[in-house]
Design goal:
The chain is an alpha/beta fold and 365 residues long. Helices cover 36% and strands 11% of the residues. The strands form six sheets. It has a three-stranded parallel beta sheet with strand order 3-4-7. The two termini are 24 Å apart. It holds the Pfam family IU_nuc_hydro.
């Protein structure tokens, strides 16, 4: 959930966005943990009034699966600076809250952003299919393609190349509830409004040492060191130090497990950033076409639902996202192949500085 922190930060503080609310879901940790973490993060960034709704504790048909080896037992290990939440979670049922919030917006303006298991989203459209026609789009971080879709390093486990991060074939968010993912990709209305950000894209955006310094010290901070005597330095604010501590915890686990040493990928905020593509004054260019071809590419996406979570760990393709390029002009799922990485980090830093300003105004260092 470390990268959820950056997704929430950008959603709450980008001037072109209005974060209506957050639903939590089973995934990196249990639902009580992910709900507490969301509330704590909102307090840390000075936005505790944004409502949080506990969502699904299990998949549509499968038990929950967690990732303590990557994110720690709490789902957000690595720092002692997370504050006690100021507010408690909302009590309204999450599906009704999502439907009400989205339908209250002008038609064709609201984005739904999924950065975890897709259970909550699948239940929303199952019970309120009219929301699919109403929203502008659904952006999700999930899936893995492979086959040279991008030049991103996908990592190795036991010296074996793989395309997934939770199994050899599958990305975690899709694998933990593949039935939910397949329900969304097969929805005839949603499939033309969906943007999928797979590992092939997120692994292009690595939080290198230079990026870590930017996040800790801000723009103009020079080449100041992130680590002092093996610990994260004080930096420009407590919030910045907390986020970099979380980042370095994730960097270590990603290095130890997947062998990616340059820095960890920052998955989830890309699902937020992609909806800014094309917005005047806020653009983060994403390139949804193959190098050398200046044309729009759209895809059909199929999720493998056969097999258990255990079988996936033993080589089954459960949770794999199989993509097929559609004929030119046919609408389908947008899957970018690249983005302006430098611009992305600049926009994220701007959001972080806005959060710092709010905290300072509230007397938080």
């Amino acid at each position: 959930m470390m990268y959820d922190a950056f997704a929430i930060l950008m959603s709450a503080y980008h001037p072109s966005l209005n974060l209506l609310g957050i639903t939590t879901v089973h995934g990196n940790s249990s639902l009580p943990h992910t709900t507490h973490n969301a509330l704590s993060l909102l307090t840390a960034i000075g936005a505790p009034s944004i409502p949080v709704y506990p969502g699904s504790a299990n998949g549509l048909t499968r038990p929950a699966v967690h990732a303590p080896a990557i994110h720690g037992a709490s789902g957000l290990d690595g720092t002692t600076l997370l504050p006690t939440p100021i507010n408690t979670h909302a009590t309204e049922p999450f599906i009704e809250a999502m439907s009400t919030a989205l339908l209250s917006t002008p038609k064709g303006t609201a984005w739904l952003i999924a950065t975890g298991a897709l259970t909550n989203i699948a239940l929303l459209f199952e019970q309120h299919p009219e929301v699919a026609e109403h929203i502008k789009g659904l952006s999700l971080m999930g899936g893995a393609i492979g086959g040279g879709f991008t030049n991103a390093p996908m990592g190795k486990v036991d010296d074996r190349e793989r395309i997934g991060n939770w199994s050899a074939w599958a990305e975690f968010n899709i694998l933990v509830d593949p039935e939910a993912a397949q329900a969304l990709f097969s929805n005839p209305v949603l499939r033309t409004k969906m943007v999928m950000i797979p590992l092939d894209v997120t692994h292009l955006v690595l939080a290198t040492g230079e990026v870590q310094s930017l996040l800790l010290h801000g723009k103009g901070g020079g080449a100041a060191s992130v680590l002092e005597d093996g610990k994260v330095g004080e930096g420009k604010s407590t919030l910045r130090k907390m986020l970099v501590e979380l980042l370095l915890f994730f960097a270590k686990t990603y290095k130890d497990v997947f062998g990616i040493e340059e820095g960890p990928p920052l998955h989830d905020p890309l699902a937020v950033a992609v909806i800014l593509d094309g917005i005047a004054g806020a653009e983060i260019p994403f390139y949804d076409f193959e190098d050398g071809k200046d044309r729009k590419e759209r895809y059909d996406v199929h999720v493998v639902t056969e097999g258990s979570h255990e079988e996936a760990q033993n080589g089954a393709e459960t949770g794999r996202t199989i993509v097929k390029l559609l004929p030119e002009g046919e609408e389908g799922v947008k899957i970018p192949r690249n983005l302006d990485v430098k611009r992305f980090w600049g926009v994220l830093e701007d959001s972080l500085e806005r959060a710092n300003a709010v905290n300072r105004a509230n007397g938080v260092s």
